[in-house]
Every structure is written in structure tokens, then in C-alpha cells.
Write a structure and sequence with these properties.
The model has no long low-confidence stretch (mean pLDDT 87). This protein has a six-stranded mixed sheet with strand order 8-5-11-10-12-13. It is elongated, with a radius of gyration of 29 Å. Strand 6 and strand 7 form a beta hairpin. The protein has 365 residues and is an alpha/beta fold. This is DUF2220 family protein. InterPro entries: JetD_C, Spo11/TopoVI_A_sf. It holds the Pfam family JetD_C.
């Protein structure tokens, strides 16, 4: 610091002290004094001097409009108080930066609307942007604030254990809100309105028509498959020579896919399996389908998803691989335990498709 800059700094401190904003403590002889410390006396003096405003004041102002709204979900006032406290410390709240009152309002509205779909399912799928536009007036608000919306729901409402373990996008899918509703892809002897489909590698039924699909002939087994490449390979390489029923879960299954799986599994009354990735996401998908099928009296078994296979073929996960939720009663509990204990994971596409029928060849690594 130059002499001129040092003198200007000391003059500024002297002015602030004279106005009652600070106390300056000097040390050393009078002809060579140096500043030892500065103590704040009245922050209002410094705010006026710098043309700034206190963070608590800014937080209260940015949230004032939200406090007056009557279209927010019950319990929103508590979250607004929590946001005010965080923003007063210049910290973000559920991923929303201080002062973003408009964004926070959109998040609260979206959270309430999604929970309504969980409590009273409307029976239709809706895409992210349409849902976001109808609820918040901004078609991209949901995509921009996906994790914040999920956090708001978890703070506003009590949700089931299985849903609490899902990531944000999986959680929304359980409420029938997806990036874009996908058709239900099925291989097997099925019919639409009692009219059987011709034999094809697989058929795609629009989500809104999935409830009209039923079995035409009873299969030897039902298999759901998590990833698209593995689904296509399976139906082309294995399905064509067997009488199984194979359904693409689309990763985490949407509501029409899940309801189709449950309906056809009840009709099939045959061994029911799921084949997916051996990682935290794959376990959550398995558990979600398993619990839904259990509610209709169908047991789900893992296919090519077990601890021995993971030990043989798995590799270390790049990041955290926490599963979440209680899976101790699940058919996949041992695999889940190994994933969390060892950090090993494995993607299903790295395996060649194999039938779940007992006579099938061992899995090729």
C-alpha cells in the first residue's frame, strides 16, 4: 500500500469513528502509531457509507410478497421463515440463492401440485414443461429447480419410505410427471382391446392407451428390463425363441409402465423377474417395482443381479453410491449390502442377455 493510500484509509476510518460507526484502537508511539484493531459500534453507519443494505432486510423484502399469497401449499409459511433465516446469513436455501423470491414461489407451487398428484393420482402422465407452465406460469421452472422442488416436498409433507429414497427425477416419475411421457414397450403375446398384436420384436403402446393392453396367451415368465439396449437385445436374441413376456421399464418406470407391469403380472401368474444395473439406482428401481408388485400379491425376483456376479464383474463407482431406504426385506437385500460396503457397481449392458429359465446357460462375463 502506498503512503497516499494508507493516509486515505486512515482518514476514512477516522470519519467512520467520528460518525459513531466504529472504534479504532491504535498502538505504538504518537509519531509512529499503527492500527491494532477496529471494533464495530453501529453497522447502520457503514451501510449508509457504502450504500448497502443489511442481508436480513433484503431477505425480508424479497419474501414479503410470498407471505401475502394465498395460493401456496399448507406449511409454506414455515419454509418461508427458514428461507428468511438462511438468506439473512447470505446462505442459499434448498438450492435457491438469497433474493430469489420469485423462484422460491414457483418451487413452492410446484411442490404442492406434485404432492396433490401423489395423494390423488389423476390417471394421466404429463411432461415437465406442460406441468410447469400450468402450475407456475414458466415452462422451464421445474427443470431448472428439480432438486429444490424435491427438497421442498420432503420438508412440506410426509412421504413413504420408498419414495423418500428416490432421486428427484424418480420421485416426479412416481407422481406421473416425466420429461416426456414414453410409450410402453412390450414383447410377448398381448392384445389391445382383445385384438392380438401380430408377432413382432416388440410393440410400443402410447401411455394413454396402456390400460387397454392385456395378455393374449399366458407366458412362461415375465421379465422387466431397465435399459433400452439390453431390452432390445433380449427380445431379439432370447425373446423370439421363448414364450416369455418382456417389458421395458424405461429406467425408473413411469406410472403407466408400472401399472401395466402389475396388471400383466397378475394375469400371467408366472415367475416375475427384473434385470437392471447393479448400482444404487438399479437397486432403487428394483425395490420400487418390487413393492408395487407386492401390493398386488406378486413376488419379484432379481435376474442377473446378485452379489456373486457383482464381485466377479463389478468395478469401483466413481462417486457416492448410497442406496437409501430400507431394503432389508427385499429380494435384492444382499446385493444392496455389497454395493454399499464395497462400492462396486456394474451396468447391465456389459452382460449378454440370458433367459431366467432354469435351463439357461451361465452368465457370460
Amino acid at each position: 500500500m502506498t503512503v497516499n493510500a494508507s493516509d486515505a484509509f486512515e482518514e476514512e476510518l477516522a470519519c467512520l469513528e467520528e460518525e459513531g460507526g466504529i472504534d479504532v484502537l491504535w498502538t505504538g508511539p504518537k509519531w509512529e502509531r499503527v492500527i491494532k484493531s477496529v471494533k464495530l459500534r453501529n453497522p447502520e453507519v457503514l451501510y449508509r457509507r457504502t450504500a448497502r443494505r443489511p442481508a436480513p432486510e433484503l431477505a425480508a423484502e424479497s419474501l414479503a410478497t410470498l407471505r401475502e399469497r394465498d395460493d401456496l401449499p399448507k406449511g409454506a409459511a414455515r419454509l418461508i421463515d427458514e428461507a428468511a433465516s438462511a438468506w439473512s446469513r447470505k446462505s442459499s436455501y434448498i438450492g435457491i440463492a438469497p433474493g430469489e423470491g420469485r423462484t422460491f414461489g414457483q418451487v413452492l407451487r410446484l411442490a404442492g401440485a406434485i404432492y396433490e398428484r401423489l395423494v390423488e393420482p389423476p390417471g394421466n402422465e404429463v411432461d415437465f414443461r406442460t406441468f410447469s407452465r400450468l402450475v407456475s406460469g414458466d415452462s422451464k421452472a421445474l427443470e431448472r429447480n428439480l432438486s429444490s422442488v424435491a427438497s421442498a416436498i420432503s420438508r412440506l409433507y410426509l412421504v413413504g419410505e420408498a419414495q423418500a429414497a428416490l432421486d428427484a427425477e424418480e420421485f416426479l416419475a412416481s407422481a406421473g410427471v416425466n420429461r416426456l411421457p414414453q410409450p410402453v414397450l412390450i414383447y410377448g403375446s398381448i392384445a389391445l382391446d382383445d385384438r392380438p398384436f401380430p408377432k413382432m420384436p416388440f410393440v410400443g403402446v402410447p401411455a394413454e392407451c396402456a390400460g387397454r393392453v392385456n395378455l393374449h396367451e399366458r407366458p412362461a415368465y415375465l421379465l422387466t428390463i431397465e435399459n433400452f439396449a439390453s431390452f432390445v437385445r433380449y427380445v431379439r436374441e432370447i425373446g423370439q425363441i421363448e414364450s416369455g413376456l418382456v417389458i421395458y421399464s424405461g429406467g425408473f418406470p413411469s406410472r403407466p409402465v408400472l401399472e401395466t407391469i402389475a396388471r400383466l403380472a397378475r394375469q400371467a401368474d408366472a415367475p416375475t423377474y427384473h434385470w437392471g444395473d447393479m448400482d444404487a439406482g438399479g437397486v432403487r428401481i428394483f425395490r420400487y417395482i418390487e413393492q408395487h408388485l407386492a401390493s398386488v400379491g406378486v413376488s419379484l425376483h432379481p435376474h442377473m443381479m446378485n452379489a456373486d456376479l457383482l464381485r466377479q464383474a463389478g468395478s469401483r463407482a466413481q462417486g457416492a453410491n448410497r442406496i437409501g431406504g430400507d431394503v432389508t426385506e427385499s429380494a435384492i437385500a444382499e446385493l444392496a449390502s455389497i454395493i454399499e460396503q464395497t462400492g462396486l457397481v456394474h451396468e447391465q449392458e456389459e452382460f449378454d442377455p440370458q433367459s431366467p429359465l432354469p435351463a439357461s446357460a451361465p452368465v457370460r462375463l
